[in-house]
From TrEMBL:
It comes from Corallococcus soli. It comes from the Bacteria. This is Triacylglycerol lipase. InterPro entries: AB_hydrolase_fold (IPR029058).
């Protein structure tokens, strides 16, 4: 009888797996579960509930809790797939000697991990985290969190919110115009459209985001240097990475977004965060192995430059272990948040980048992940 595989999907920055129908990994979970089933693999796929912006250590403790609750009944192999910051949580989980929880012992589970896959993860940090450290960045973060949840629930923002937020973004460069009354109006209007139960859950989530933001300084290029210095690969674990690079904002991408006011607003947000992410210090760019470099050149036609990114994380910051695939996609495309409403269930894109990423690329990406998870594993 074959072993049961335990696959954990670890969310990234402000991952909201605990908000009912607002599914962070919805499409990725369903595709990977069915793909493993088609392969004849006895596998349980679990989405992890993490504190949204708590420290990497706290989020890794959340991962340990999920593993303890679902994998204690057998000795089957464990696989970790982390998107964005979730990839860092996965690396710390398997790092020899890591201590993340006083209540649970990590090592018995860490020894069972076979693979770690990171998707668009900031292994060398991201300059966007530096921006979010400021007051303006913190306010924008909370709005973007709420926008994300709203769009995934209702499909798009109300036009009145679009125009109000557009006014704020127009003043973003000099950080003026952030009046508390206007922000309160936007929050109240968006929260008011949820049911009472869901509104309370979303409000609690946003409160958690504001209460504990210790993750943010850890994700700066300077902060992640400390993480990398104390986090080590575990012998016997296979590490692989999925790398994303999106098009720089331009007239072409703006026209591709269409004339819809909502699309134009979200593209403006994309252009703004892309500009912040481009500011990666040259001294913080990691060196790559010949195999990693070859994979990037084959995928993109040339080595990505120092300003290349997916809108949230620099492209060259995402490389770790074997490059499983490198695609043209923005930061959320890879987990299924792109524009394809005709698919059932629909794919909803809240950050319109003009990447052109669609369902065929999504399926190919996650099939590649499945191939890596089951590599050298016997089939039933």
């Amino acid at each position: 009888m074959s072993e049961k595989h335990h696959v954990y999907l670890v969310p990234g920055f402000f991952g909201f797996t605990n908000l009912g129908e607002l599914l962070y990994f919805g499409h990725a979970y369903e595709f990977l579960r069915r793909d493993l089933e088609r392969r004849g693999v006895d596998a349980e796929v679990v989405t992890v509930v993490s504190h949204p912006t708590a420290s990497i250590r706290q989020r890794t403790a959340d991962l340990l809790k999920a593993v303890n609750e679902t994998a204690s009944g057998d000795n089957g192999p464990i696989h970790l797939v982390g998107h964005s910051t979730g990839g860092l949580d996965a690396r710390l989980f398997v790092s020899p000697g890591a201590q993340v929880s006083e209540a649970l012992e990590l090592e018995p589970f860490a020894r069972r991990v076979r693979t770690v896959v990171t998707v668009s993860a900031p292994h060398a940090g991201t300059p966007l985290a530096t921006f979010f450290l400021g007051l303006f960045g913190q306010q924008l973060l909370k709005l973007l969190s709420l926008f994300t949840m709203y769009v995934l629930r209702f499909g798009r923002l109300p036009l009145s919110v679009v125009f109000r937020f557009g006014h704020l973004m127009a003043r973003a460069d000099n950080q003026l115009g952030w009046k508390a009354t206007l922000l309160d109006q936007i929050f109240d209007q968006l929260l008011g459209d949820f049911s009472t139960e869901r509104r309370d859950a979303v409000a609690k989530f946003l409160w958690d985001v504001g209460r504990d933001t210790s993750l943010i300084p850890q994700l700066t290029p300077e902060g992640i240097d400390l993480f990398n210095g104390g986090t080590h690969d575990r012998p016997g674990v296979r590490y692989g990475s999925v790398v994303t690079q999106s098009r720089p904002p331009s007239l072409r991408t703006r026209l591709a977004a269409g004339m819809d006011p909502y699309a134009q607003l979200t593209h403006t947000i994309y252009a703004f965060v892309y500009g912040q992410t481009q500011r990666m210090p040259l001294t913080q760019l990691p060196l790559h192995t010949p195999a990693q470099t070859a994979a990037l050149v084959q995928a993109y036609g040339a080595m990505p430059g120092p300003t290349a990114c997916d809108g949230i994380v620099p492209t060259r910051s995402q490389v770790y272990g074997r490059v499983l695939t490198a695609v043209r996609a923005d930061h959320l495309d890879a987990i299924g948040h792109f524009d394809q409403p005709a698919h059932q269930p629909p794919h909803v894109d809240w950050l319109i980048s003009g990447s052109g990423f669609r369902r065929p690329q999504f399926e190919a990406l996650w099939k590649t992940i499945g191939d890596f998870l089951m590599e050298e594993e016997p089939r039933r």
